[in-house]
Recover the amino acids of this structure.
């Protein structure tokens, strides 16, 4: 029996608008880089693959190293793209942009889904690989109060797919892993990681990337029927 529901944050509850790729490409071009759309997509993908290969606890630099983490990441993209480096001015503009709540949108299916779960008396939590700004962002977007606890990798100094971040959240919610359903968009970090930690899980597949997955939903509007 499900006694609590955990959610991922990015690409599950909220998304940047305009998209990250558009903002990065604009700032890199303004910073002097010359590239095709295909070149930029490849550079961004390669940089994220390198990040994914690193230890989850270090992914966002922890609470003391986030600025250095993001600068290293952006310089990876630029290095792959044209061998250059991101200027301090471009980095400052990007940091300001993504810290601004107006740069983010909540998906249309989120609030109705949270309301439906609240009507059932189910406590909610967030388990997210994000930097320490996430709680502040959720507060500004009006989402923070809907969740009993918010576990953020940079604050916890452990992140998905490590089971510890799921188990730690379960302890705070006073539920057993077998009593939790986790919802997220990443096959590896949400669906597979949650199941490996002993939770139930459904994959949120908004763009139909995993048509063969049995435990998937295309919208959070389908979530209540899975409980």
């Amino acid at each position: 029996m499900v006694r609590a529901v955990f959610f991922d944050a990015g690409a599950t509850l909220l998304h940047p608008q305009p998209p990250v790729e558009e903002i990065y490409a604009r700032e890199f071009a303004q910073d002097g880089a010359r590239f095709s759309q295909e070149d930029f997509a490849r550079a961004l993908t390669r940089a994220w693959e390198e990040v994914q290969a690193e230890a989850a606890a270090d992914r966002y630099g922890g609470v003391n190293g986030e600025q250095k983490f993001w600068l290293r990441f952006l310089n990876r993209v630029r290095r792959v793209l044209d061998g250059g480096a991101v200027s301090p001015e471009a980095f400052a503009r990007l940091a300001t942009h993504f810290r601004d709540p107006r740069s983010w949108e909540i998906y249309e299916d989120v609030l109705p889904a949270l309301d439906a779960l609240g009507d059932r008396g189910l406590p909610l939590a967030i388990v997210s690989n994000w930097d320490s700004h996430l709680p502040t962002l959720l507060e500004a977007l009006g989402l923070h109060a809907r969740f009993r606890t918010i576990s953020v990798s940079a604050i916890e100094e452990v992140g998905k797919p490590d089971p510890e971040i799921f188990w730690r959240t379960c302890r705070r919610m006073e539920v057993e892993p077998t009593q939790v359903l986790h919802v997220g968009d990443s096959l590896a970090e949400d669906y597979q990681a949650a199941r490996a930690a002993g939770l139930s899980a459904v994959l949120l597949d908004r763009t139909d990337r995993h048509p063969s997955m049995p435990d998937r939903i295309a919208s959070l509007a389908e979530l209540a029927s899975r409980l």
